TrEMBL record:
EC category: transferase
Cited function: Catalyzes the transfer of the diacylglyceryl group from phosphatidylglycerol to the sulfhydryl group of the N-terminal cysteine of a prolipoprotein, the first step in the formation of mature lipoproteins.
Superkingdom assignment: Bacteria
GO MF: phosphatidylglycerol-prolipoprotein diacylglyceryl transferase activity
High-level lineage: Bacteria, Bacillati, Bacillota, Bacilli, Bacillales
Entry membrane topology: Multi-pass membrane protein
E.C. number(s) listed in UniProt: 2.5.1.145
Pfam family, one: LGT
Binding, a 1,2-diacyl-sn-glycero-3-phospho-(1'-sn-glycerol): R135
Subcellular location: Cell membrane
Family per similarity comment: Belongs to the Lgt family.
Protein name: Phosphatidylglycerol--prolipoprotein diacylglyceryl transferase
Species of the source: Marinicrinis sediminis
Length: 313
């Protein structure tokens, strides 16, 4: 049987190849921007603020994400340094992107006189929507997939359409579409964030905290299926603990994806656990110290001015 894979190049302009990966990442950024602008209108925040934030945050996220990945895969780049710039081939780490985006946002919001936490709350749905869409770029590149599976699992158990099943046929084997698992998890997270942000119980910063915790939970379990994880050698007790947490996934999806024999801890899983713990502590500490006295629905202050949210959804 012949399985037709999608060409990762969307079209060419003379000698320039335009990749689906770049188109999808651009679409993800645009969708996130529109969501932030729409919500920002309720607080009378000008659209230009979010446009500028994207223009500053996106390059920062991409640069740090790439550096994060290259540092852990340096042996693959030390003899071909120009490959470091070939991001259209994939190889960016989402945790690195998050670090880069946060650094840029902290600096920019402070320059503009806004609270980082209030802006982060508004942008949280944008971030998870961007990740939801962006994972399809991995699909187009046939990367970031999980371990081998039977075709029947994809067709009969998951009931996936032909174009996904065919594109998961790589070098003679079918693989877990982990991009899809994470994308669907992020879709659920997007719906959750939109629903809870209007709740009176949400304090400033907690929509953003909910986002990073939700994403980290999903990333922890999906990461265990992948075969391209950045990993390191850690203590056996920690590896056993993390494998134990992942066990429920094996009931549905089988064994974990393989990693290098001299490594036992996946970096993304470890960072996800750290993020979950730190976020939970921050929420408790900020409430007890009175650092989160503002609620999501409260007016946003900027350099002595107050912008009150409208009543429109």
């Amino acid at each position: 049987m012949t399985y037709f894979a999608i060409d990762p190049i969307a079209f060419s302009l003379g000698p320039i190849n335009v990749h689906w990966y770049g188109i999808i990442l651009g679409t993800a950024a645009l969708a996130g921007l529109l969501l932030a602008i729409q919500e920002g209108k309720r607080f009378k925040i000008p659209s230009e603020f979010f446009m500028d934030l994207l223009l500053i945050g996106a390059p920062s996220a991409i640069i740090v994400a790439r550096l994060y990945y290259v540092l852990f895969e340096w042996e693959n780049y030390q003899d071909a340094p120009l490959e470091i710039f070939a991001i259209w081939q994939g190889g960016i780490a989402i945790h690195g992107a998050l670090i880069g985006a946060i650094i840029a946002a902290v600096i920019y919001t402070r320059m503009k006189g806004y609270s980082f936490w209030r802006i982060a709350d508004i942008c949280a749905p944008s971030l998870i929507a961007g990740q939801m869409i962006g994972r399809w770029g991995n699909f187009m590149n046939q990367e970031a997939h999980g371990g081998p599976v039977e075709e029947s699992f994809l067709r009969d158990t998951l009931h996936l359409p032909d174009f996904i099943v065919n594109h998961m046929y790589i070098n003679g084997e079918f693989y877990h579409p982990t991009f899809l698992y994470e994308s669907l998890w992020n879709l659920a997270g997007l719906i959750l964030l939109i629903l809870i942000r209007r709740g009176s119980f949400m304090r400033a910063g907690e929509v953003f905290m909910t986002y990073i915790v939700w994403y980290s939970i999903g990333r922890y379990f999906v990461e265990g299926l992948r075969t391209d994880s950045l990993a390191f050698q850690g203590p056996e007790w920690l590896a056993s603990f993390m494998n134990g947490l992942w066990t429920p996934m094996s009931w549905l999806f089988g064994e974990q994806g393989a990693i290098a024999t001299d490594e036992n801890i996946r970096m993304a899983q470890f960072i996800s656990l750290v993020i979950i713990v730190v976020a939970a502590i921050l929420v408790v500490v900020r409430r007890r110290k009175g650092w989160a006295d503002q609620r999501y629905q409260d007016p946003i202050q900027r350099e002595g001015y107050v912008t009150r949210p409208s009543q429109q959804s």
